[in-house]
Amino acid sequence: MSLELSTIAILSGKRCSPWSAVSLPDINQLPMDIITSADPGSRVTLIGTAVNTVLIVIKFTAGILGHSHALVADAVHSVSDLFTDAVVLFGVSAGRKPPDTRHPFGHGRIETLATASIGFALIATALYLGIQAGLDIYNHTQYRPTGLALLGAAISITAKEALYHYTLHTGQLLKSQLIMANAWHHRSDALSSVAVLLGVTGARIKPAWYILDSVAALIVSFFIIRVGLQILTNTMRELSDTAPPPEILDEINRCSLSVKGVISAHDLKVRTSGGAYQIEIHIEVDGQLTVEQGHRIIKKVESRLAGALDDFDRVIVHIDPAEAKTVDQP
Predict the structure, then answer these.
(1) Phi/psi of residue 310, each to 5°?
(2) DSSP class per residue in 248-310
(3) Using one digit for the tens of pLDDT, what is the confidence trace for 18-30?
(4) Parent domain of 271
(5) Which of 11, 276, 301, 323 is the most exposed place for a label (fewest CB within 10 A)?
(6) Which of 239, 256, 274 is the last residue of a domain?
(7) How many helices (H) and strands (E) are present in the chain, helices listed first?
(8) Is residue 207 classed exposed, middle or buried when 0-12, 13-18 and 19+ CB atoms within 10 A define those classes?
(9) Tens digits of per-residue pLDDT, 59-89?
(10) Would you state the torsion angle of the CA atoms of residues 57, 59, 61, 67, taken in this order, to the nearest 10 degrees?
């Protein structure tokens, strides 16, 4: 099972070339609905909220009537999903607003903070499940669940795994770490329901196997904690302005140097906000060029980087004169 999440933007298949350049609009002039991309992100979250609400009712009912304490605990776990769904809706809508006078670099860090809260929620959920499972093992707690509990767990697994794939796919399309983190919260629900299914099945086959429920829940809690820690680690890298991997920096340098008129590039600084790159770079050009010629080179560098990087937000290009060097004018 892959637990790998990454806030690092991946390079597209396009290489640095004149054909990878794109026209850069003024970000302050873009329509609100284009920047926020709220429709798909909100839609997948609202669908998740509706499914979670139905599952909470099903699991509480099946757990109580089916004499399964584990399924009731799983229903309590599902209640936390309503909180995370609210966080996602807020993070997606607020985090993708365009820059304004008070937030000149945009609102991407709001989405980052919301992603971190999902990580904390996953860890808290896992600790609750793990401690409860540990106590049940220690106390040799026994339950006599019925087939209704088995049905409730099976419905939960099917629905939550489907939600996981749907949410993850949407998050990848939108390049939203927040939505992808919420997808893992759906999967944590599915895994906890798997533990319930194993315990209920084991207890119905052979009452002496009642311990399977708690053992499975304990194992699942460790997997969920690992995912939560991975999400928090990635968000901390972004909040602390950690630079992306060397291969990303090398690609940015190569793209800049591929522009005609650029002699060298240095002092590259890159940070991530809301999963998108914010870049600052110095380039050297022929010191005899006019201001207008230098400006054209800067715009070509900006366009080349925007066309080569999937998760490009903005770039600030500083121009320095290269004395006693000659370069073909653009």
Answers:
(1) -65, -50
(2) HHHHHHHHHHTSTT--EEEEEEEEEETTEEEEEEEEEEETTS-HHHHHHHHHHHHHHHHHHBT
(3) 545 544 444 444 3
(4) 246-322
(5) 323
(6) 239
(7) 9, 3
(8) exposed
(9) 889 888 987 777 877 787 777 778 778 888 8
(10) -170
